[in-house]
Write a structure and sequence with these properties.
single chain, 8-stranded mixed β-sheet, 20 strands, 37% helix, alpha+beta, globular
Length: 430
């Protein structure tokens, strides 16, 4: 991956050739790769630590902001989503992101809010979405079993990456898309500042057939996105795989510590059932549907606010930059927004080898405040749906008002304007 030096201080009509190494082949890293592969002067390679590309988890939701970002990144990225996307199955609920209801107590079953946006709940199975993204990345640009152990960024030379298998690679730009346990984040911030933070919450996830869900819950509840809220707990369900399956995630917000070495540990169904004792019939039906041999507790982590996402020619995106709890369904969308802004800056006609650090700084200025706010508000939404937010508690009216405020600002951000803003900042720095 050699670099071609820029021989003039002026912006050349022929773009400067340069190379990009993306460390990590999850959704954010592959979407960024697709955004850059459109440009023949950019030599893109993806380095994945695992033997193959893969995603952990089941459903992932993308709001209208993230879907617009995919469209702007390119047709391959949007097509990967569209091929497997599953909306709410009832036309009357097409614009519902989720229907929030009280799940326990004297008001059990009472509506809190039908939270709506331009696209409604649009979800895909993570693994299927990733598989489609992989198909659009040429095989020669994907490198596996490449666990990063060191980065060396010296002036006058490409950035040097060293991997655990003893191999090396060089690039003019390095983007860490290597998840919450990011080696690139550790390089930028130091191991202590980079470490994930336990959120005080745990999720219990499962997938069941839609036929079984309809039998237990009825068609309306099973075939559309629903979220039941109660003291210290909540449970979300929504269809995936074109309505063949129901994705279920029960949440427990009363876990102050996590004392296990692993982040996912087995759980007995009886223990889960006890945590939702006395909840509404719909909740109990969902808990019954989670009764499976592979039931587990998934500890939920995020990251502390990073003072920067960049240093010289190295940057981070997605969970490596701003891992978030899942309570706004916004984490994957923020990684896609990162990829959009980064790809637009790196592909800018104004970009040269010398200007790369300034392009990354513009990315940092635009993306860091917004992405970090998502991390903060997602934690707040966790407290809201667990009826633990100070001054709100179980007051349905106050919950409704707060949920409106916490969600719409994410969905309504103009993606064209965000890219334009980054471009202006980059241009002003040259």
């Amino acid at each position: 991956m050699s670099s071609v030096p820029n021989t003039t201080s002026e912006v050349s009509p022929v773009p400067t050739a340069f190379s990009v190494a993306i460390v990590g082949g999850g959704i954010g890293g592959l979407v960024l790769a697709l955004g850059l592969l459109k440009y023949p002067h950019i030599d893109v390679h993806v380095y994945e630590s695992a033997p193959t590309f893969g995603e952990i988890g089941a459903g992932v939701a993308l709001g209208p902001n993230a879907q617009r970002a995919l469209e702007m990144i390119g047709p391959a990225a949007k097509a990967a989503f569209d091929k497997h996307v599953t909306p709410n199955m009832w036309p009357s609920k097409a614009n519902n992101f989720a229907e929030y209801r009280v799940g326990k107590g004297e008001h059990a079953g009472e509506p809190i809010i039908e939270l709506k946006n331009a696209t409604g709940m649009q979800s895909v199975h993570r693994a299927h979405f990733l598989d489609e993204l992989v198909k659009a990345v040429p095989a020669q640009r994907a490198h596996f079993s490449k666990r990063l152990v060191a980065i060396e960024d010296k002036a006058g030379s490409p950035v040097l990456l060293s991997f655990k298998d003893g191999t090396n690679a060089t690039a003019d730009v390095v983007i860490g898309a290597d998840g919450i346990h990011s080696a690139v984040r550790s390089y930028l911030l130091g191991p202590e500042a980079a470490a994930p933070v336990f959120s005080g919450s745990v999720a219990y996830r499962g997938i069941t057939s839609m036929d079984a869900a309809v039998e237990k819950l009825g068609a309306e509840y099973a075939q559309n996105s629903m979220l039941l809220c109660g003291p210290g707990r909540a449970i979300l369900s929504y269809p995936i795989d074109h309505g063949a399956l129901l994705n279920i995630a029960a949440m427990d917000f009363e876990q102050p510590t996590w004392n296990h070495e692993k982040t996912i540990v087995p759980l007995k169904w009886d223990d889960l059932s006890a945590r939702f004792e006395g909840w509404s019939p719909q909740t109990r039906a969902l808990i019954d549907l989670l009764n499976a041999p592979n039931l587990a507790s998934w500890s939920v982590w995020d990251t502390s606010a990073a003072p920067t996402y960049v240093r010289n020619r190295v940057a981070i995106l997605g969970d490596a930059a701003h891992a978030t709890t899942p309570y706004q369904g916004a984490g994957a969308g923020q990684a896609i927004e990162d990829a959009l802004v980064l790809s637009s800056l790196l592909a800018s006609p104004s970009n040269t080898l010398a200007a790369i650090p300034k392009a990354l700084l513009a990315y940092n200025q635009v993306r860091r405040p917004r992405a970090q706010r998502v991390v903060e508000t997602s934690r707040e939404v966790g407290r809201l749906i667990g009826m633990q937010m100070e001054g709100v508690g179980a007051d349905v009216g106050k919950m409704r008002e707060a949920l409106e405020r916490k969600m719409h600002w994410i969905w309504q951000r103009d993606m064209v304007d965000q890219v334009r803003e980054a471009g202006v900042l980059f241009g002003e720095s040259l």
